[in-house]
Structure formats: structure tokens, C-alpha cells
Amino acid sequence: MTARPAITAAILAGGAGRRLGGRDKGLEPLAGVPLVEHVLAALQGVDARLIVANRNHDVYSRYARTVADTVDRHGPLAGIATACAACETPWLLTVPVDCPEPPVDLATRLLREALLHDAPAVVAHDGTTRQPLFALYRRELADAAAAAAAAAQGVWAWQDAIGARELDFADRGQQFQNLNTPDDFLAHASRPHSTD
After folding, report:
1. Which has the closest alpha carbon to 97: 8, 14, 172, 188?
2. Model confidence over 123-178: pLDDT tens digits?
3. Residue 15 annotated as binding site
């Protein structure tokens, strides 16, 4: 039996937090715990963890290796390019820091799809729409991601350009919910949560 290729999970935490008054979203408390801790706790089936952040490195580095965007133009694709360049395993899984409960089988299912179809990347689809920040990439895509980010290409368009496959996660659709505002944090903390 062939060993499963190793995966690094990168949490994308480089946003400006504009809808939170400029506060660092990943460090905002959710049920008394920084949001980034919820994301880290949910990640399963990965071999290493990485955080891409453009501030508060001293805090984030307590949780995992932390790097800043290496592409001048910030944005989600810059974070993906940075994570790919820093990745030391064959595969890179990306998740945004504002989603506290990503599916626990996200990495496993995306990798299975990638290997089955020899795909360069696989991105989750929640049953309604593509979730472009929940994706698995071959590490070798770092240069392509950096070039696309520098050219201000969007994540979705870049995924199409590299031939990324979509994988249906309709059974986990609610787990892709992201938190952007103080009201989102309050509402999430007060509702029942998935246990798997």
C-alpha cells in the first residue's frame, strides 16, 4: 500500500478585517477563544500547519509557523502563493481564518480526488457555489500563483486557468460559513455546532 502524500495546511489570515473595524479577524474571540484556534482544532488529515498573516506574527507564531505575504499585491491569491512557496510537503491545503468549522474530512476528500484524477488542484463546492479558499494544491504551483497574484488575477479565475477540479461538499455545506462582522461572531457562538 502506497503511503499517503504529506499535506501542509495553510490558514489564510492576511486580511485587513475591515468589517471588524480593522481588528485582526483571526485573533478575535469566538466563545472566548481566538478564531484561529477553532480553525486549527478542526484541521485533520494534515502533516504540518502554516499561518499566512501580515501582522501580529508574534501571536500567530505561538500556534504554527507564520509567514507574511511575499507578493506585493495583497489578497487571497497572494496568500496562496506565499503558502505554496513556504510549503515543504507535496500538497498544500488552504483554509481561510474566518471559517471556524471547516469540514474535518476536507483534506482527505480533496486529496483523494486529486490523486484519482491526477489534478493539479481541487477546490471545494458547497452544493451552491465554489468555495475558492478551501482548496488543495500541488506545491509546484507556487510560481504560477505568484505571477497571477502580481497580475491581480482573482483566485477563482486562477483556479480555472490551472485546471482545478471542483469536489462536491454539499453534505457539509453549512461548515463553510465564514464570520465577518461582530454580529456574525455572536450568532455563531449562540447556535448548535456540527460534531463531525
Report:
1. 14
2. 999 999 999 999 999 999 999 999 999 998 999 999 999 999 999 999 988 899 88
3. no
Pairing mode, strands 121-125 and 130-138: antiparallel
Query: In the predicted model, what is the mean pLDDT of residues 102-118?
Result: 96
Q: Is 25 annotated as a binding residue?
A: yes
Amino acid at 54: N
Task: Answer whether 64's CB lies under 8 Å from 53's CB.
Answer: no
Q: Where are the domains of the chain?
A: 7-189
Any binding-site annotation on 40? no
CATH superfamily of domain region 7-189 = Spore Coat Polysaccharide Biosynthesis Protein SpsA; Chain A (3.90.550.10)
DSSP helix/strand/coil, 49: strand
In sequence order, what are the residues at sequence separation of 6 or more whose Cβ sits closer than 8 angstroms to the Cβ of residue 47?
6, 7, 8, 89
The answer to whether 149 is a known ligand-binding residue is no
Is 98 assigned to a binding site?
yes
Q: What is the CA radius of gyration of the chain?
A: 16
Binding site annotation covers 163? no
Q: Which of 61, 17, 63 is nearest to 39 (CA)?
A: 63
